[in-house]
Amino acid sequence: MIFSKSSHADGRSIVPSAHLQDIEECISAIESQVARGAAPHIRAEFLAALATKGWSGEVSISPQESAVTITSRKRATGLCLQTGGNASRIYADLLKLQALYLNDDITCGIFVLPSAPAARVLGDNLAQGDRLVRELSIFRKVITIPLMVCSFE
Questions:
Q1: pTM exceeds cut of 0.90
Q2: Which domains can be identified in the chain, with CATH numbers?
Q3: What's the pLDDT at 68?
């Protein structure tokens, strides 16, 4: 699969290049084709590849207070993956990453999701990278975590 990257709040300088390399390799290793109904397979392939590179499973935002989680973490980098989620879920994941950042649990984040063309093929009203990148500029004073957005297609 091919992908593109976009930086928010100096993410390009702060997200460790080794972590971005992991993400690029995991996306490139996905064998499933972008097609209607393929989102769960793409997700499973990505997560399996991620685990081989030392990334964790789900990480709780606040274990004592709720079951809210992000997809993964490696050292001080949080990761959210959306392959088949509704577009409105973007904001929930952004808030999770921002909360971890403000609580000094992570120093940066990576968001992985389909590009606009891939999202249209995968399903209806799905989260997609083009929209996230466009809207991050609107919320630049609210979402301050250094972030890299990786969109696949």
A1: yes
A2: 3-152 (3.40.91.20)
A3: 93
